[in-house]
Amino acid sequence: MAEHFVQFRVEGQAVYGMIHLPEGKGKFPAVALCHGFTGNRIEAHRLFVKMARMLAANGIAALRFDFRGSGESEGDFEQVTVSSEITDALAALDFLRKQPEIASDRIGLLGLSLGGCVATCTAARDGKVKALVLWAAVADLKDLSERMPPEARESLDRQGWIDFGGWKVSKAFYEDAAKIDPLREALRYDGAVLIVHGANDPVVPADHAHRYHNAFQCTKRLHIVSEADHTFARLSWEEEVMKVTLDWFKAHL
Predict the structure, then answer these.
(1) Does residue 143 have a pLDDT over 90?
(2) Is the C-alpha dihedral spanning 222, 227, 232, 238 positive or negative?
(3) Nearest alpha-carbon partner for 126 in 175, 88, 172
(4) Residue 35 above 80 pLDDT?
(5) Quick one: angle between helices 47-57 and 235-252, nearest 10?
(6) What is the pLDDT of the chain when averaged over all its residues?
């Protein structure tokens, strides 16, 4: 396998990532990985690194990238919105399709948490994504505002941003999120989707997975990981998630 640092530009800003290529000569199917809110292309307990390397070891290329304002990519987190991340993900798909080693008609998407919402919207708008996998995906963005404590709401209204554990989250982020309905976008996706969720997810309840499963009208499967948390932070959970994900991409790309 080969791993290369890559970059592409979106609206004048550099997006940095890592591409993982299988052994041999292409053209290979490929998957782009969309990280979660305040995450990066490595993700919790190196989950994205492990998944990308597993894909490459099984003949599927993978692109891990940092959304603008996250990880090492250019931009400030204060400018991040769900829409900006969808724009970045669409650009990542375009970048992948232009690589000489990649089969441009065999592209998949994987998204974790808010990245799952982004991946859903991206797949629906792109129209050419063959296989989609959602890990602990957010299905209802209205929850973001509704669950905000009163003091955070006051801060948002007064200064236009809140301090979210050291991340400056703008009022524009919440205003943009309120306009996006991933379940409605899911209706437009006609590929094959695997929905994976932890039964005991304390961040995004498993109900979100069932709502996605009801919304998609294409080839679909729901896989609930017994007792698992939001990022599948136990070796047995991680192994289960990565195996079912690999099997899905092998079957549908």
Answers:
(1) no
(2) negative
(3) 88
(4) yes
(5) 40
(6) 96
Which DSSP symbol is given to 216?
-
Could you give phi then psi for residue 39, rounded to 5 degrees?
-90, -165
Give the pTM: 0.96
Cα separation of 86 and 251, whole Å?
Answer: 26
pLDDT band with cut points at 50, 70 and 90 for residue 148: confident
Whole-angstrom distance, CA of residue 127 vs CA of residue 155: 39
Give me the pLDDT at residue 137, please: 98
Which CATH number among 3.40.50.1820, 3.40.228.10, 3.40.50.720, 1.20.1540.10 corresponds to the domain 2-140+181-252?
A: 3.40.50.1820
Considering the chain, tell me which residue range(s) the CATH 3.40.50.1820 domain(s) occupy.
Answer: 2-140+181-252
The total number of residues written for the chain in this structure: 253
Residue 179, phi then psi, degrees to nearest 5: -90, -5
